[in-house]
Amino acid sequence: MNRRQFTKYALLAGGFLPFINTAKALENLEQRKIQAKAASTKAHHDFMEAKDIKMMGDEKIAMLLYPGFYAPDLINPQFIFSSLMGSKIFLVSPTDDLKPVNASGVFITPTHTQSECPDDLDILFIPGGAAGTLKAMQDEKFINFIKGKAAKAKFITSVCTGSLLLGKAGLLKGKKATSHWSTMDILPKFGASPIKQRVVWDGNTVTGGGVTAGLDFGLEIVAALRGDEYAQAIQLQMEYDPAPPFDSGSPDKASPFVKETVKGMFAPLILDMEVESEIS
User: Fold this and answer.
1) SS (H, E, C) the chain
2) Active site residues
3) What pLDDT digit, counting tens, does each position of 188-206 carry?
4) Report field, pTM of the whole predicted structure over 0.90
5) What is d(CA 197, CA 137) in angstroms, rounded to the nearest whole number?
6) pLDDT in tens, 121-179
7) Which class is 60-277 in CATH?
8) In the chain, what are the domain boundaries?
9) How far, in whole angstroms, is CA 218 from its chain's centroid?
10) 13 to each of 16, 18, 37, 47, how far by Cα in Å?
């Protein structure tokens, strides 16, 4: 073989090299996909076979919408509940249609009307809010709907000022409960004993504190239904490892100035809610 022929074959081989490398890369990718699928299958199998974990269920969860509720009060636990394999979530409209509901600037689209909401609920959930919650407390039809669905619900639950709606429906009498810190003093007017905790259980009544407590609330509900490790897996999946920039998340920790100014801002609304709590 002369030099010219050698050069020719060398150039041809170099031209094929990218194709060879691509083929090897594709083959390696396919192998990695097979390995990843096998790892996923094994993980699901291990989880389903774990002694204290209930992987599948058929829970019916009704989350009631009304104009002016706080979107995070609903979205935080809804995200967690949606991880319950086999469960069904009903985002229940306050009207007879499925028009989006204004949740303090965030529009949430219901999935079901009130007439489509089942009676045999595993979880009845009420989010909180501010002025919207006050109006909901004054809505006799809405309060009666809560009463009716609570009659057969396995768990009667709320986050933030949603507990005031439970109270207005007569569901907190003789119960320990919590709410947003600014409305804790209203709970006794409904016959409840206020407890300063993120989540409070009393029989089948479960109430969560203000807004972010919906995450803790959701995880505790999941743990009760499916086991601690199921809830822990959800917590890891959503990387719920709070490290707030300020330690002012409760009235016991906030500075006197911050506490008093925030409390003052809420004063008219709290008074109206207090008056509404005295109306039977």
Assistant:
1) CCHHHHHHHHHHHHHHHHHHHHHHHHHHHHHHHHHHHHHHHHHHHHHHHCCCCCCCCCCEEEEECCCCECHHHHHHHHHHHCCCCCCEEEEECCCCCCCCEEECCEEECCCECHHHCCCCCCEEEECCECHHHHHHHCCHHHHHHHHHHHCCCCEEEEECCHHHHHHHCCCCCCCEECCCHHHHHHHHHHCCEECCCCEEEECCEEEECCCCHHHHHHHHHHHHHHCHHHHHHHHHHCCCCCCCCCCCCCCCCCCHHHHHHHHHHHHHHHHHHHHHHCCC
2) 160
3) 999 999 999 999 999 999 9
4) no
5) 23
6) 999 999 999 999 999 999 999 999 999 999 999 999 999 999 999 999 999 999 999 99
7) alpha beta
8) 60-277
9) 6
10) 5, 10, 36, 50
Token pair belonging to 191:
């016959």
For strand 106-108 and strand 193-194, is the pairing parallel, antiparallel, or unpaired? Answer: unpaired
In the block, residue with structure tokens 């809830």:
231
Instruction: Count the residues in the chain.
Output: 280
Q: What angle do CA 63, 269, 206 make, to 5 degrees?
A: 35
**Amino acid found at 103:** A
